[in-house]
C-alpha cells in the first residue's frame, strides 16, 4: 500500500512537472496556470483513480499462488484448486503417469471426457499401462453414454493383453462379448476374474452377482420376445415357456459345458416357482465345472441371489 | 499492485487528455506558439506515456497470469502460448479499448509534433484530438477498465476465444484501430480548421496525409480480417456483409472518398465543404462502428461481449462528436471558400462522381446495417439484412465506381476535355483484356454480377498499367514518381480485388463427404485422398490432423481442434494453393457411416484466383503508403504553398522543439 502510494505520487508529480514546465518559464499568469494545471493533473488523476481503485487488493499471479498451493495438503483444497494442483504436477512432471491418470479421472468425473481422454492418450504415449488403458476404455464408454465403442473395446483388449490379471479390463471385455451375444466368451472372461480374485475381495462378489444376473437371463436368440407369444392365450404361453425350459435342460444334457445355460435354467426354474429344480440345475452345473473355480463362483453367486441351499447333483 | 498502478495510469492519461484539450485550446487562442500550446503538447506526451505504460502493465499481467484482474481471468489461461498471452491483451473489449485509447493519444502527440504547419490550427487540432481522447479515456476509466479486479481471484482463467488464437488476429486489431483512430486526426484537423476559419485548400492539405495513413492502415486491417475469416471460420467466406464488417467498410468507403476529394480540394480548390464533411463523418462512422461492435445491439462472430451500458457510453461519445462536428460545419462551412469551376469532363468531375458513388455506397451499407436495429426499436417483426440486399445494392455501385476509376488520371484538371485523355488511354487497347476476361467468365458460367466485376477488374488493371506507363515519362521528380506509383498500384489493387472477388463468386459448389482413410473425392478436377487422421495436440488444445493428398502430389493438413478450457471446437482449414486458386479443406468429426465404416466428414471447396484478393489488398496498402511517402517527402503543391506561406507570415514563428514534420 505504501509502495503503491509512493509510486502513484511520484508518477503524478512527474507528470505535473512535465505538464507545467512549458508554462513555468513564461512567468506571470502563465506560471500560475502551469502550477494550477500541474496540481489539477496530479490530484485529478488520484481522484479519478479513487472512484473505482482498490489500492489494498493484492495481485494474484499464477506462479507464486501455485507455489504456495504445492506446500498444502491437497485434501484441504477446493475442487478447483485440487484440479489445478494436479495440472501443475502434470505440467512440471509430464512423465508422472499417476498424476495424469488422477487428473483424467477427475476431469471425467466433471464431464470433461475429451480432455480426460487426451491426458490418458498422452500418458500412453509415454508408457503402455493396463490401468491407463482400462481408464481410457471406461472414459470412452462414459463419453458415449455407456455404449461399448470400437475404441473402448480396443483399449480394454490392449489392457487385458498388457495385464490379464487386471479384473476391470476382463470385466468390460466380458460385457462386450455379452453385448455381442457371445455368452460363453463373456462367462470365460468373468469366470476368469472370479477365479483370480480372493474369496473375500468385495469386487469379486459384485462381479459375480452382476455376471450371474446377466448370464442367467434367457437368451432370445436375437428374436423379438413379444413375437413368440403374440396372439397366444395365457395357458398356451405358460406351456410354451415350460417347453422352452425343458428344451434348454435337454440341450444341457447333451452339451453340459455351458455355464450360462445352467444359470439360465436355474433362473427359469425359479420363475416357475420350483426352487428344488433350480438348486439341482446349479448343482449339476457345479459338477460339470468342478475344475473351473470361476464358473463355480458364478453358479454360487446365483444360488446366493436366490438364497438356495447348495446341494449335490 | 501492478493492476492498481495500471488503473492509476489510465486515470492519469484521462486527466492528461483533459489538460491537453484545455491547454491546447488556450494555446490556439494565443496563436499556437505560447507556453499553453506547448503544455498541451506536453499533456499529449503524458497521455501517450501513461496509456502506453498501462498497456505494457496489462501485457505483463497477462504474462504473469494474474487472474485477480477480471479481464485477464476471462481472456487468458496458463497453458496459452506466449504469443496469445500477449495478444490477449487486446483480444477482448477492455484491452482493445485501452489500445484504441493509446492510439488516440499517439495521434494527439503526432498532431502536436508533426501536425499542420499553421501553429494555431495545429494547436486547435491537438485540442480537438484531446477532446476525443478524453471521451474515450473516460469510458475506459469508468466503464471499461481493463484493470477491474475480481476477488477472490480464480485459480485459472477462462482462456481466450479459440478463434482469436491466431497469428493474424494478433496484428489485425492494431492495424484496424490505427485506421479507425487515425481518422480522428482528420476529424480534429477539420474541426480545428472550421474554428480557425482556415481555407479549404489549406485544410485539405493538412488533413490529407493523416487520412491517407489512416485509410491505408484501415485497408490493411480489413484485409487481414477478411483473410482471417477466410481460413479460420471454416466456411471459406472472406466477406459476408456482417454488421461488424460493414462497420469497418463504411469509414473505409468514406476514407477513400476523402483522400480523393482532398486531392481535388488541395490542387484545384474543388469540393472544400465536401472534403471537410467527409473528414468529420468518416470518424463519426468509426465511432458508430465501435458502438455496433461493443454495445451488443447486433449479433456477429466479430462482436465483443454484449453490454448495453457500454453501448450508452459509446452512443454518448458518438453524439458529442457528431453534434460538435456538424454544428461547427453548419456554422463555419462558408469560411472554407469555393473552388474554381470545372468542366464535366475534367478530373475533378470524375473524382466528384466517384466520391458520390462511394458516399452513396456507404449510405446504402449504413441503411442495410442499421435497418434491423430500427425494426427492432419500432417493435416490428425481426428481420435480418444480409448479402442479397448488399449484393443487389452496394455491389453495382462499387462496380460502377471501379469502372470510372481508371479514367480520372487521364483527364486534365479544370477545363477538362475527354478527347486528349481518351486518346492517351488508347481506350480500345484497354477494352481488349476486358473482353478477354468477360469471355472467360461467361465461358465458366459465372453469374452476371461476377462477369461485370471481372470485366471492371480487368479494365482497372489495364488502366493502372497504362497510367503508370504513360505518366512515368512525364513524372520527372522522385516525388512525382512516388505519387504516380502509389496511384497506379492502388488502382491496380482495386482491379485485382474485383477480379479475385468475381472469380471467387463463380466458384464450383462445395462438396461434403464422409471419407475413411484411403478413400478419395474429386473437386474442380483435383483428386483428394484422405491418407490418415492423427492426433496433433497443442499446448492448450487437442487436435485431429488429417493428411489429404491432392492429385497424389502435394498434401494438405486440416485440423479439428478442441480447446478444453474454453470448451470450444474449431476447424483449422488446410489450404492447397497454386496460381489457379486454393483447394480449401476442413475436417469434421469421425462418424460411423451407414456401411459401418468409421469416416471423417471432409468439406472441400475450390476458390479460384482467391490470391488476387490478397495481392489486391497488398497493392492498395502499398499504393497508399507510397502516396503518403510522396506527400510527406514532397511537400504541398505550389498553389497551397503560397497560401500557407501567406498565413505563416501572419502567424508567429514555429517554436523550437515543436517538430519540423510536414503535413
UniProtKB/TrEMBL annotation, chain A:
<keyword id="KW-1133">Transmembrane helix</keyword>
<keyword id="KW-0201">Cytochrome c-type biogenesis</keyword>
<keyword id="KW-0472">Membrane</keyword>
<feature type="transmembrane region" description="Helical">
    <location>
        <begin position="32"/>
        <end position="51"/>
    </location>
</feature>
<dbReference type="InterPro" id="IPR011990">
    <property type="entry name" value="TPR-like_helical_dom_sf"/>
</dbReference>
<protein>
    <recommendedName>
        <fullName>Tetratricopeptide repeat protein</fullName>
    </recommendedName>
</protein>
<keyword id="KW-0812">Transmembrane</keyword>
<dbReference type="InterPro" id="IPR051263">
    <property type="entry name" value="C-type_cytochrome_biogenesis"/>
</dbReference>
<dbReference type="GO" id="GO:0017004">
    <property type="term" value="P:cytochrome complex assembly"/>
</dbReference>
Automatic annotation (TrEMBL), chain B:
<keyword id="KW-1133">Transmembrane helix</keyword>
<feature type="transmembrane region" description="Helical">
    <location>
        <begin position="126"/>
        <end position="144"/>
    </location>
</feature>
<feature type="transmembrane region" description="Helical">
    <location>
        <begin position="6"/>
        <end position="25"/>
    </location>
</feature>
<dbReference type="GO" id="GO:0020037">
    <property type="term" value="F:heme binding"/>
</dbReference>
<dbReference type="Pfam" id="PF16327">
    <property type="entry name" value="CcmF_C"/>
</dbReference>
<dbReference type="InterPro" id="IPR003567">
    <property type="entry name" value="Cyt_c_biogenesis"/>
</dbReference>
<feature type="transmembrane region" description="Helical">
    <location>
        <begin position="37"/>
        <end position="63"/>
    </location>
</feature>
<keyword id="KW-0472">Membrane</keyword>
<keyword id="KW-0456">Lyase</keyword>
<dbReference type="InterPro" id="IPR003568">
    <property type="entry name" value="Cyt_c_biogenesis_CcmF"/>
</dbReference>
<dbReference type="GO" id="GO:0015232">
    <property type="term" value="F:heme transmembrane transporter activity"/>
</dbReference>
<feature type="domain" description="Cytochrome c assembly protein">
    <location>
        <begin position="90"/>
        <end position="295"/>
    </location>
</feature>
<keyword id="KW-0997">Cell inner membrane</keyword>
<dbReference type="GO" id="GO:0017004">
    <property type="term" value="P:cytochrome complex assembly"/>
</dbReference>
<feature type="transmembrane region" description="Helical">
    <location>
        <begin position="207"/>
        <end position="229"/>
    </location>
</feature>
<dbReference type="InterPro" id="IPR002541">
    <property type="entry name" value="Cyt_c_assembly"/>
</dbReference>
<feature type="transmembrane region" description="Helical">
    <location>
        <begin position="609"/>
        <end position="629"/>
    </location>
</feature>
<keyword id="KW-0812">Transmembrane</keyword>
<comment type="similarity">
    <text>Belongs to the CcmF/CycK/Ccl1/NrfE/CcsA family.</text>
</comment>
<feature type="transmembrane region" description="Helical">
    <location>
        <begin position="277"/>
        <end position="305"/>
    </location>
</feature>
<feature type="transmembrane region" description="Helical">
    <location>
        <begin position="249"/>
        <end position="265"/>
    </location>
</feature>
<dbReference type="Pfam" id="PF01578">
    <property type="entry name" value="Cytochrom_C_asm"/>
</dbReference>
